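Hey, resending since the last one bounced:
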Amino acid sequence: MIHNEERKIEYYKALVEKRSDYEGVFYVGVKSTGVFCRPTCPARKPKYENCEFYETAQQALLASFRPCQRCRPLSHPNQVSDIVRLLVEAVEQNPEKRWKGRDFKALSIDESTARRQFKKRFGMTFVEYARARRMGLALKSIRSGEKIIDTQLASGYDSSSGFRDAFSRIMGAPPTLLDDSRILKAAWLDTRLGPMIAITDEDELYLLEFVDRRGLEREVERLRKRLKAAIIPGQTKPIQWIKHELTQYFEGTLTEFKTLFILSGHLSSKAYGSN
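The structure tokens again:
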């Protein structure tokens, strides 16, 4: 996500004016509708405070935004092939689906052709595209943090049952089923190099990764299975401290991290806040 305020103002102006010369330069995620658009989208323009700007479609997908049906940001400025169009539509019909070889065969599409065409058009393979859309749904709850409640999980998303299934598969269990489980907390952290996810208990940090890292889903699954834990959105002291340290690090004022973290089951580093 773009954080520079001057650039955001520039992009918003281009959005309002429907500037075609900004095509491919940015995508806008509209928080009030949950979609992301091209700069020239013909829809009514959102308020500035409802806009988040991204340099790539993958970033917008990972932030849980879905492609706008009016401007079709994944089909412009150049038209895409029938294969790409069909696969994009298939993902939107079931965004939490994990694609296998048989799924391509069912659509009479060659898997390697899909990979090449997506890579050429969007700079990511189809599997990476589908994963970004799927992870965006699960990470949406993490980004919302403690504001998420069970009724929102049940009714606040485009595909509520599908989202709950995806969330449970990745994080362990929906909040209503966590009474007897060990619980880890997860939070979304925006950094200058892109969004990250932090997973901790009340004392230590267990995982800190960029959300677009390949294999992140499996890494999270391995962590929760190894610890026999469920992972839910929330805030802890280690999360607050690593967020503070990352801010200092990217500002160039920190060279040594002191947050306590666990690496392969072993205690490492110093306690958060220690001198």
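The longest strand covers residues 182-189.

Sorry for the duplicate.
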